[in-house]
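fold-stage: in
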Amino acid sequence: MLAAQLRNAPTERPRRLRRTGPLRALVRETRLHPEMFVCPVFVRPRRGVREPIPSMPDQYRLSVDQLAAEADELRRLGISSVLLFGLPEAKDASGSGAYDEDGIVQRAIRALRSSHPDLIVMTDVCLCEYTAHGHCGVLRDGQVDNDATLELLARTAVTQAANGADVVAPSAMMDGQVRTIRAALDEAGFTGTAVMGYSAKYASAFYGPFREAAGSVPQFGDRRGYQMDPPNAREAEREVALDLAEGADVVMVKPALAYLDVIHRVRPHVPVPLAAYNVSGEYSMVKAAAAAGWLDGRAVTLEILTALHRAGADLLITYHAKEAAAWLATR
């Protein structure tokens, strides 16, 4: 009987290295750490403002004077990077608040440079939060004019770099935006400022809570004419290749969770850091389900972030950054 059992016993036993927590940790292939997290921050006018965002639990719109305390907490948690989004005092047809030398993001950069010179300050380069119509560029005959928008994106990036941004991140999905911004930065003397392209940014339904948070809902139509069509994957390879050829220092896939295949697909072709944006809708779904008791919010969040890193992302832009960093410290 024993001989028969031995003959039928498995010769491979992967369970041996799963038996205990320390063993599993020893052989873990994918490891999260807070330094790979980039925390998005929404900045708004006035003073003393810490305004909850209803559709994004535990997220806030902050006034500039609140940023030092926010950065204190991030650094304490081991997070070294923020990505700034601005809500201007006023909007117009050309989104002039985006490239105002004293605009909301420009003031936020200066405040963070003063209080936390070691913090990596990344800035979104787009016009959607600043235009009265809510689109990502200037309009001509009811359509976003790609080439006219490029000039304004470049002006925005230069003003952000001039105020101390480490990384500018064009998200408008205008053709040629990385090349135009890189040339403008170099011409202005900001050769050390990096460009992170929103290279494969899809026209996704997962952006809803962000648009409420940033006040960037289009007043007519949608953004499908310039953001990528969700069914397309080969096109992502083309977009990433174009941004690399134009001088991007970092490329990105956005959204992240529903586009794990795209992250994995482009990874072999990307010699620079690859970012994944774990967007607002992905965040809010987890928060809502956890609040209802339908899933373990902590376990699911860490599993999602691990999946993004496992798929090939080096940088994780996520609203979960602070809580995930705190959880990792206690694992």
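fold-stage: in (second)
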Amino acid sequence: MRNLIFGINITLDGCCNHTKQFADEEVHEYWTGVLREAGLLVYGRKTYELMVPFWPDVAKTQSETKALNEFARVFDSIPRVVFSRSLDSAEERRAEGKTRIVRGNLRDEILRLKQEPGKNILTGGVDIPSQLIQLGLVDEYLFVIGPVIAGEGRRLLDGVSLPEKLQLKLVESKIFKSGCVVLRYVKQ
């Protein structure tokens, strides 16, 4: 069974708004390694629209730094599932057949995807991961905490109501030169 991994960049005060983040070469290299271990990306519409077509375009043009170009290349090679009721077509975002839009039941679809053979499933963003956490479907959590106090913006897991406390086990920590800290937890 494939694991479902939730990964996100956040600030010290829990802000997950992408405009408030700190992401340098080292952070992008880290996420590139995480992507290499993923066989499927799962997003909601908002996160998908932040990622596509930007990263596929960078993958084609190789117009950024070495680390960003490699991140883009790996990102663009992975199939994506997008949960959306409003997105009509992935092709309109130049996804070139790598994206499937799902309008059905989130729980049932993720359980089905977890049963498929292959590498792990990686999810990011806020709305869909929050729902997946509430459903108890996330197996692993990756937080890259940036050395920033945003003071404003959307907070991680705002409005999430868990049926019970979620106890996690720390299995990895890493400190980057920039002061970013990676914390990797698994569900106990």
